[in-house]
Amino acid sequence: MKRIITAAVVALAVMGLLFVSCQKKEGTAQKGAFRIGLVTDIGGIDDRSFNQGTWEGIVRFAKDFGLKEGEYKYLQSSAEADYIPNLSTFSDEKLDLIVAPGFLFEKAIGEVADKYPQNKYLIIDTVVTKPNVVSAVFAEHEGSFLVGVAAGLKAKADGKKIVGFLGGMQFPLIEKFQAGFEQGVKAVYPECTVLVDYAGDFGAPDKGQAIAQKQYNAGAYIIYHAAGGTGNGLIKEAKERSAKGDIRWAIGVDKDQYNDGVYAEGKSAVLTSMVKGVDVAAYEVAKMVKEGNFPGGQTLVFSLKNKGVGIPATNPNLSDDIIAKVKEYEAKIASGELVVSDKPAK
Question: Which residues of 44-72 are buried (b: 16+ CB within 10 A; e: fewer)?
């Protein structure tokens, strides 16, 4: 079932942009009412991850630029079959910008962009080469390297030898998270074993919890997820075990998931998170459109160099020495001294 909903949520801080491709196109600044819409993937608007993070950027834009209720909204997709109908609904309404968060929209955006050449679209996490589409991509492997360093050092300090990775669907994009995480762990703790499982789903917390149970039972101390709503099951399992005294850790993704891991006063089962600037992508592109500078046909790249990926500003569960080591690696990657592969080791 589709729902159109307006809401207000807490927004994240602004990060920088690095443009790849030609210079941005000049145009006429948007005057009068500005309308923007988000179509969620199957994870839903409250996935505490990718969709929610993107929506937060839209809400922040709406607040900063005085949009009224009804001028920013979303359509929720319950299945992939909803993608084209939902995008078409907003296209028929002639919204000023339509946002699709996730590589699963690649085919749908391509079709709809061709059908509605006068409309403007933003797709996040993949590239669609159309003159009325701007693409935002991220160096997930770089940010994942940092949380891998944190996981490896935490496991080593606590005398543990196994960590895990939980992916949603096994595509090259999600394998970038796995690749960076594995490299980060091995950089500081070569003897550590990294378990890897894919759920085949981004919207199934029950599957995420089942895989977390499997990996924790196999000895995993910390599990990093790149699984959208499926990863909520991992966090639930980490919370339940930690509340019973069997301390286990989860690492969040896309947005700071520390609060999702709280199981007692002052205690969270989320060690840290790999934050992606999906909110920034939505905010900045909306701002460009409003100012008449829509970068159609271009790809915006968010990396460690421009702070488009990274760890949260505050990490209560990481010691100062671990944070210092993470920052050390961050500087090396941002400067180009250290190059992180975006493909898992065979």
Answer: bbebbbbbbbbbbbbbbbbeebebeeebb
Is 302 in a helix, a strand, or coil?
strand
Spatial CA neighbour of 229 closest among 191, 249, 257, 248: 257
**Whether the predicted model's global pTM rises above the 0.70 cut:** yes
Residue 79 CB-density burial (10 A; 0-12 exposed, 13-18 middle, 19+ buried): exposed
Domain count, the chain: 2
Asked if residue 323 and residue 210 are part of one domain, the reply reads yes
The DSSP secondary structure of 48-69, one letter per residue, reads SSHHHHHHHHHHHHHHHTTPPT
Q: Are residues 322 and 203 in the same domain?
A: yes
33 and 92 fall within a common domain: yes
The CATH number given to whatever domain includes residue 287 is 3.40.50.2300
DSSP reduced 3-state for 125: coil
What is the tens place of the pLDDT at every residue in 4-51? 333 333 333 333 344 343 334 445 566 668 999 999 998 889 887 789
Task: Indicate the helix (H) or strand (E) that contains 18.
Answer: strand 18-20
Which residues does residue 123 pair with via DSSP β-bridges, in sequence order? 100, 135
Residues near 52 by beta carbon (within 8 Å), at least 6 away in sequence: 9, 45, 46, 255
Q: What is the pLDDT of residues 205-237, one digit of tens each?
A: 999 999 999 999 999 999 999 998 899 999 999
Residues 186 and 260 in one domain: yes
126 lies in the same domain as 145 = no
In this structure, the answer to whether residues 210 and 225 fall within a common structural domain is yes
Structural domain span for residue 10: 4-138+277-302
What is the length of the chain?
346
Radius of gyration of the chain (CA): 20
